[in-house]
Design goal:
Order of helices and strands: HHEHEEHEHEHEEHH
Number of strands: 7
Largest sheet: 7 strands, mixed
Number of helices: 8
Radius of gyration: 17 Å
Helix content: 40-55%
């Protein structure tokens, strides 16, 4: 066990793991029957030259880089802990940039980075329940950034089968090759300058959970239940 822990800390091992992760995502996509729905929503905003925020649950992160097929720069908010570094390097191999930090640690700096990216014409991806939960409960970072920048929020989710739910806090979906899946964009959510951040965060949470539930029902995937609401209130 000690030797394995030592191995996972070595840069060469971590680089290889990230490369393999990116290749696995590509392999799942290329061998499966995947479709993307609701792409008219991001396409319309991009045609209008309007940056936006993409919001998706941490447990539905794995296949979402495949939904980004646009020339507009995309920066994803990724935490600075060890797991976050692996995610950042993996999605970097898939053409996605990174804003280091999280909405629970160094939130002010992350918020400034998000707004700067949006005002510069880029788009931002964020997991409102990341980096460590509670699962499928939205923190306020996405809504704060939307309110201050004027950028809309686009919910995004996917479901697939066959699939395995990881035993991690987020119950991450791990798809298998040669399966089928759906990646779905939700309709844009506009946040007014005078909006109540807590209320709008709950609305975003409900919209994301409804999107996930609908996809799971359509594909016959066992549902992922959100963490108890009390956990979200304790984090706030």
């Amino acid at each position: 066990m000690a030797s394995l822990k030592f191995l996972t800390r070595r840069p060469a091992f971590r680089a290889a793991a990230c490369w393999l992760g990116a290749q696995y995502i590509r392999f799942v996509w290329l061998t499966g029957r995947w479709r993307i729905e609701g792409a008219e929503h991001p396409e319309k905003l991009i045609e209008e030259g309007r940056p936006f925020i993409i919001a998706f649950w941490h447990g539905r992160l794995l296949m979402l880089p495949t939904a980004w097929r646009y020339p507009t720069r995309l920066q994803m908010v990724i935490s600075q802990h060890a797991d976050g570094e692996l995610i950042s390097r993996t999605i970097g191999l898939l053409g996605i940039g990174t804003l280091a930090g999280s909405t629970s640690r160094g939130a002010a700096a992350v918020l400034r980075g998000m707004i700067r990216t949006l005002l510069d014409g880029g788009c931002v991806g964020i997991t409102p329940d990341g980096p460590r939960g509670p699962r499928m409960r939205a923190a306020q970072g996405a809504v704060q950034a939307a309110k201050l920048s004027g950028a809309p929020i686009l919910p995004l989710a996917y479901a697939c089968r066959p699939v395995k739910h990881a035993g991690s806090w987020d119950r991450m979906l791990i798809p298998f090759p040669f399966g089928r899946g759906v990646i779905r964009w939700g309709e844009p959510i506009g946040i007014a300058r005078d909006a109540n951040i807590e209320t709008e965060s709950r609305e975003l949470e409900e919209r994301l959970n409804a999107l996930v539930d609908a996809l799971d029902d359509e594909l016959g995937v066992p549902k992922t239940e959100p963490a108890p609401a009390e956990m979200a209130r304790s984090r706030a």
